[in-house]
């Protein structure tokens, strides 16, 4: 999205958690970049979050003083950059600040980061029976914290977690089959943003199956060693600056930067992923996927996708033989059903991601704004 605006002559500034990592992994180039204000998660041991509101509380949004300070830091960023539009991906503190500052904002993201407009926020642990009263209790804690943090400001009090999004346009960048949630009555699906920039992939020589690995957990590395030993040709990208996990021989290529997933998928036989975003790109190219989730957001997506027959998954909560990622790899590689369902999904949505950016950006008004400013030498 940033590159899209830049190509249209707009000034773009990225505010991200780790600018150094961004530069190392995707080469930010001419895009201005600064560090994002953020909160520190609660370090105290506690059970996994039950819904989106509970997850925010767990990650620092349950402390009004800290949240108020976060909003002030975001407002300072906006006062310095003076944006015409703020585009947010999973940044509720920045969303509160944009609302307080009266800035136009749009929210983009997966089903998880753009949750349904439902009260109470639905469970993110659907494998358990969670009483609605408990979900409401978790949500009320967030509401109370937000209202305390925003007291005395221009923004009116919120009544529910969904009210966080009241002043922003929302774009759910996935498809229904790949949503973290089953019900989404008030949203339409924009579809995933494809054609992500990345380096081309050259598969190792040989005749074995071509397997793309995306992640860095121990389970994924176990599967990689097994796949290499059985003659698979493997390409591996380990995100977030993770180092290579040793030499697995000539059948493994280690990438230093993110891959061109669309081109990689054209010749791939199986993808082994931890992140739903990468898995989505492969599924929409008709490639079967083995999911090895490492945290709750990944587990929720893998659970939904596995119940729809779209992926093989090793659950965070599985035990015994069901927890063996190597056995799951064998099943995924041999499964005609997984490949058939991935092919059907790819056929259903073929060509529908071509104009996702234009659909999102077209509603911002910035393209016409840029034309009106062109005579004065200004850009939004």
Can you give a write-up of this model?
- This protein is of the alpha/beta class.
- The chain has two domains: 2-193 and 354-376, Rossmann fold (3-Layer(aba) Sandwich), CATH 3.40.50; 210-349, Glycogen Phosphorylase B (Rossmann fold), CATH 3.40.50.2000.
- Helix content is 38%, strand content 12%.
- The protein has helices at 2-7, 19-26, 52-61, 64-81, 92-101, 132-149, 218-229, 261-265, 276-283, 296-307, 325-334, 336-349, 356-362, 366-373, and strands spanning 13-16, 32-35, 86-88, 105-109, 169-172, 210-214, 233-237, 252-255, 270-273, 289-291, 311-313.
- The strands form three sheets. The chain has a six-stranded parallel β-sheet, sandwiched between helices. The chain has a three-stranded parallel β-sheet with strand order 3-4-5, covered by helices on one side.
- It is globular, with a radius of gyration of 22 Å.
- The two termini are 15 Å apart.
- 37% of the residues are buried.
- Mean pLDDT is 89; it is low at 367-380.
Q: What characterizes the major β-sheet?
A: 6 strands, parallel
Unreliable sequence segments: 367-380
| Number of beta-strand segments | 11
* H/I helix tally: 14
> For the record, what CATH class of the largest domain applies?
Alpha Beta
CATH architecture of the largest domain: 3-Layer(aba) Sandwich
Structural class: alpha/beta
Indicate the CATH topology of the largest domain: Rossmann fold
Write down the secondary-structure element order.
HEHEHHEHEHEEHEEHEHEHEHHHH
Q: Give helix % range.
A: 25-40%
* Order of adjacent strands in the largest pleated sheet: 8-7-6-9-10-11
CA-based shape: globular
Oligomer: single chain
Radius of gyration: 22 Å
Distance between the termini: 15 Å
User: Beta-sheet strand percentage?
Assistant: 5-15%
Mean of pLDDT: 89
Number of domains: 2
């Amino acid at each position: 999205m940033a590159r899209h605006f830049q190509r249209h002559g707009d000034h773009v500034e990225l505010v991200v958690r780790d600018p150094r990592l961004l530069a190392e992994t995707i080469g930010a180039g001419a895009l201005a970049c600064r560090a994002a204000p953020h909160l520190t998660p609660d370090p105290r041991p506690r059970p996994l979050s039950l819904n989106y509101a509970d997850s925010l509380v767990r990650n620092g949004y349950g402390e009004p003083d800290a949240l108020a300070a976060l909003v002030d830091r975001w407002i300072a960023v906006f006062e310095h950059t003076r944006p015409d539009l703020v585009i947010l991906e999973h940044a509720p503190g920045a969303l509160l600040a944009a609302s307080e500052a009266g800035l136009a904002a749009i929210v983009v993201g997966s089903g998880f980061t753009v949750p349904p407009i439902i009260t109470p926020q639905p469970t993110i642990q659907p494998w358990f029976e969670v009483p609605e009263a408990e979900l409401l209790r978790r949500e009320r804690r967030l509401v109370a914290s937000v209202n305390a943090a925003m007291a005395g400001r221009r923004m009116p009090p919120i009544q529910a977690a969904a009210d966080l999004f009241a002043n922003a346009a929302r774009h759910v960048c996935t498809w229904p089959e790949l949503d973290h949630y089953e019900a989404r009555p008030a949203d339409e699906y924009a579809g995933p943003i494809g054609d992500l920039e990345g380096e081309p992939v050259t598969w190792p020589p040989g005749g074995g199956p071509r397997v793309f690995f995306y992640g860095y957990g121990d389970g994924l590395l176990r599967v990689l060693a097994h796949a290499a030993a059985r003659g698979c040709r493997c390409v591996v990208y380990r995100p977030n600056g993770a180092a290579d996990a040793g030499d697995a021989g000539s059948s493994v290529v280690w990438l230093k930067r993110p891959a061109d997933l669309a081109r990689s998928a054209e010749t791939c036989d199986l993808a082994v992923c931890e992140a739903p975003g990468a898995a989505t790109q492969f599924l929409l190219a008709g490639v079967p996927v083995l999911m090895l989730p490492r945290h709750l957001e990944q587990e929720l997506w893998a659970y939904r996708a596995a119940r729809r027959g779209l992926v093989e998954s090793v659950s965070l909560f599985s035990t015994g033989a069901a927890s063996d990622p190597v056995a799951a790899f064998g099943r995924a590689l041999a499964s005609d059903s997984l490949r058939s369902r991935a092919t059907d999904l790819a056929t259903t949505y073929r060509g529908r991601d071509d104009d996702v950016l234009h659909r999102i950006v077209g509603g911002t008004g910035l393209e016409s704004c840029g034309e009106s400013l062109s005579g004065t030498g200004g850009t939004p």
